[in-house]
Amino acid sequence: MPVILEDRPREQVKEEVIDVLVYNYSREVISNEAFERRLDAVMDAKSNAEMMKEIEDLDATPDDAIKQQREESFSVNYAHEATEDEDWIVNVMGGSDRSGHWTVPKKLNIVSVMGGSTIDFTDAQFSTPNVTINSIAIMGGDKIYVPENVNVVCKVFCLMGGIDNKAPSVAKRNAPTITITGFALMGGSSISVRKTIKEKFIAFANQMKMAFGKEHR
Asked: Are residues 54 and 14 in the same domain?
C-alpha cells in the first residue's frame, strides 16, 4: 500500500515535481513564464498537495536522465587531484578576485588592509569537506560567495567591524563546511549566495532545453 502524499518527505516530493516541470519546459510543453510561475509556487508551497497541483495538468513523466543531470549539476564539485594544503591572498590598498573554476585548499588565508577580495565558491572544486578561511581585515574586507549546498560557520573576532553572514547554511550533513576565523578591525566581510536555488533551477532547465533541441535538429 503506497504512503499517502502528505506523509512523504517534502524535499523528495519537491525534487520530483520540479523534475516534471523541467522536463515539460525543456520539451516546450509549457512556456518560460509558466515554468517560472509554477516553480515559484512549488518553492513557496506549504504542503505536498500544493506542489503536486502545479503538475496535475502535465502528462509527461521525466526520464532518468533529468534526475541524473540534476544531481550532477547541483552536487558540490570535489577535485580529483591533490592541491595545496594552504594558500594566501594579500591585499594592501588594493583588491583581487578568485572565482570561476578553481580548487579550494584546506586553509585559505586572506589579509586585507585598506583593500579586499572577492572569493566566489559557486563553481569551485573542493579538495576537502572542511575548509578554513582565516581572514584578517583592517579597514578593509572581503566579499565571499558560497553555493546554497555548503555550510558556513563564522568565528571571527570583530572590533569596530563585523561579519555579515547571509548564507542560508541549510545544506545536508555531508556537505562541505566553510569555517571563517580571524580578526576584523574597522572592517569586515560579507558572506552571501551569488546564485539562489531558483536561479540554479532556471539555468538547469534552460540547459536541458538546449540539449533536447540539439538532439532533435
From this structure: yes
Residue whose C-alpha cell is 584578517: 136
Count of domains in the chain?
Answer: 2
Q: Residue 52 sits in which domain range?
A: 5-74
Residues near 108 by beta carbon (within 8 Å), at least 6 away in sequence: 86, 87, 88, 89, 119, 131, 132, 133, 134
**How far lies 170's CA from each of 82, 150, 173, in Å?**
28, 8, 9
Q: Where are the alpha helices (DSSP H) in 27-166?
A: 32-44, 48-53, 64-74
**How high is the mean pLDDT in each 10-residue block of the chain (217 residues)?**
82 89 90 93 92 89 76 71 83 89 91 91 87 91 86 88 75 76 88 81 85 62
Please tell me what DSSP assigns to residue 116. E
Distance between CA atoms of 192 and 143, rounded to whole angstroms?
8
Is 70 in the same domain as 143?
no
Which run of H or E residues covers position 24? helix 10-26
**For the chain, give me the number of helices (H) and strands (E)?**
5, 12
* Within-domain flag for 149: yes
Q: Could you tell me if residue 198 is inside a domain?
A: no
In this structure, the answer to whether residues 65 and 91 fall within a common structural domain is no
Q: Tell me how far apart the alpha carbons of residues 169 and 28 are, in angstroms, rounded to a whole number.
A: 35
Going by C-alpha positions, the residue among 72, 66, 57 that lies closest to residue 26 is 66
